Amino acid sequence: MKKFLVVLLAIATVAVVAAPARAGVEFKYGGMFATRFISDDNVNDGTDKMDDNGNWVDQRLRMYFSFIASERLQVVTKWEANTSWGNEVRGGTGAGGGGDVGADATNLQMKNVYVDFLIPNTPLRAKLGVQGIALLTGWIVDDDFSGAVISTTFEPFKVQAGYIAAQNEDVTDASENIDDLFVSMDYADGPFSASVIGFYQYGHDNSVSATAASAAVLPVEDNNLFDLGINLGYKLDWMSVFLNFVQNLGSYDVTGDRSYDYRGRMIEAGASFFVNDFTFTLGGFYTSGDDDANDGDDDAFAYPVGKTYYWAEIMGYGTLDAWVSEASNGKDLTAQEYNNGGYGVADRPSNLWTVSLGASWQALETTKLTLNYYYTGTSEDVVSNAASGEKDSWVGNELDFYLDQAVVDGLNLRLVAAYLWAGDAYTTLADDDNAYELGAQLLWEF
Predict the structure, then answer these.
(1) How confident is the model over 164-206, as pLDDT tens digits?
(2) Degrees, nearest 5: CA angle 377-380-384
(3) Nearest to 370, CA basis, from 403, 399, 406
(4) What DSSP string runs through 240-309?
(5) Residue 146 CB partners (closer than 8 Å, separation 6+)
(6) 367-385 vs 192-204, strand pairing mode
(7) Sign of the alpha-carbon torsion through 327, 319, 350, 338
(8) Per the CB 3.0–4.6 Å rule, which of 118, 301, 370, 410 could disulfide with 72?
(9) In this structure, how many other beta carbons lie within 10 angstroms of the beta carbon of residue 363?
(10) Closest by alpha carbon to 355, among 403, 415, 398?
(11) Phi (first) and psi of residue 13, to 5 degrees
(12) Residue 108 reports pLDDT greater than 80
């Protein structure tokens, strides 16, 4: 039945493309294709004593189709198909299927489908449907959601407000319901830019975003998370600087135990300097941890559903780590998600801080070399040896190298080599071993 529906969808798509466009409606399309070749070691378990060497290939296709009546009305659709080579997931269905012999699978996913229109006799624009929403470079949220967004522009200000239906799997059960509201104001004039963002996640009786230990085992009620975010930026021809800040507010109740207040926070700053064909960068971030589990405050920096903040290659979901399929090497998480002693990593850093240095060189018009260094530690000490109970704060030193090369007609090749000198806090094992990633990505955006 599913394959039959896919055939019908393909026929309908061909018919739309081949048929004469309806008067007044313009059809636009675009997309991207990427394939990656990846090899890594100790990214999952952090030790040489277990077999954790992965080697695989995967690919992603995204297709964008827009139906445009005018500047006042359009419908935007985005579709995605992911494949892990040689792997047929769930008997040929689901994300990542179709990579084995025969290759047939039902793995076309809806990424975005929404209507974008100007509300008559107002300066307001509305987007209704499944759409991408990004706030504060992912420190608050950056993902695809179903919801509604209203925006307007009064130069040099832009204001938007929206509702996100983050989860509503059972309309009769409050523990299955998550609703979000947000408002943001952006300012840009000359070299200055600034944003102020307010985000509210009402988790109802769901434990979402709560980090206290009791919230993992006891029912949570009346879960309210507020994020207040600020961004400041300044850019000239020879340099740019920025500052990001988010403060968690709100509270939740744990049944039969106590009430907790969200008090986590993060701060990030960075600077780039442009000298001829070179770019030099300096930056870092700090995310709070919980220094006292019994003081009634949830101090670890918390995220609403839909966070996506990428940073380092191994520690922060870089080019090779943002898994494009559920089956990429059989894992969805980086190593430290499994056995770290109490910090968040990958695209949700919490109780974590880092300082980074970087340099890139545009060696040729088609060739760019980049080298980045990260020193990473925990804000509060975490368990570094589960057997002895010892604690530590040094996670590791990471060095990332990239070579970007234009190939032909917009097709770009990126070579990646990353190495992590593991610190004692990398995992809860007595001996933490170093990790590496090697790989390549071919990317065409069209």
Answers:
(1) 999 998 878 877 899 999 999 999 999 999 999 999 999 999 9
(2) 70
(3) 403
(4) EEEEEEEEEEEEEEETTS-EEEE--EEEEEEEEEEETTEEEEEEEEEE---S-TTSSEE-S----TT---
(5) 129, 130, 131, 164, 165
(6) unpaired
(7) positive
(8) 118
(9) 12
(10) 398
(11) -65, -45
(12) yes
Tokens matching residue 219: 């029912």
Which residues, listed in sequence order, are joined to residue 384 by a DSSP beta bridge?
A: none
What sign for the dihedral angle of Cα 7, 12, 18, 19? positive
The two tokens of residue 137 are 């470079």
Unique residue bearing structure tokens 């000490």: 381
Contact 330, 44 (CB under 8 A): no
Q: Which of 404, 340, 343 is nearest to 368 (CA)?
A: 404
Distance CA 223, CA 250 (A): 8
Give me the half-sphere count of Cα atoms (radius 13 Å) on the Cβ side of residue 129: 15
Q: Decide: 46 and 335 in contact? Cβ < 8 Å.
A: yes
pLDDT cut 90: percent of the chain above it: 68
Q: Are strands 297-298 and 259-262 parallel, antiparallel or unpaired?
A: parallel
Average pLDDT, stretch 350-354?
96
CA atoms of 421 and 435, how far apart (whole Å): 7
First to last CA, the chain: 32
- What is residue 176's DSSP assignment? G
**CB atoms inside a 10 Å sphere around CB 15:** 9
DSSP for 10-21, written as a single string = HHHHHHHHHSPP
Rounded CA separation 208/187 (Å): 32
What would the two tokens of residue 47 be? Answer: 């030790």
Are 209 and 305 in contact by the 8 Å Cβ rule? The answer is yes
d(CA 26, CA 22): 8
The SS3 call for residue 30 is strand
Tell me whether residue 316 is exposed, middle or buried, using C-beta atoms within 10 angstroms of its C-beta: 0 to 12, 13 to 18, 19 or more.
buried
Other CB atoms closer than 10 Å to residue 8's CB: what's the count? 10
User: Whole-prediction pTM value?
Assistant: 0.89
Q: Which amino acid is residue 203, in one-letter code? A: G
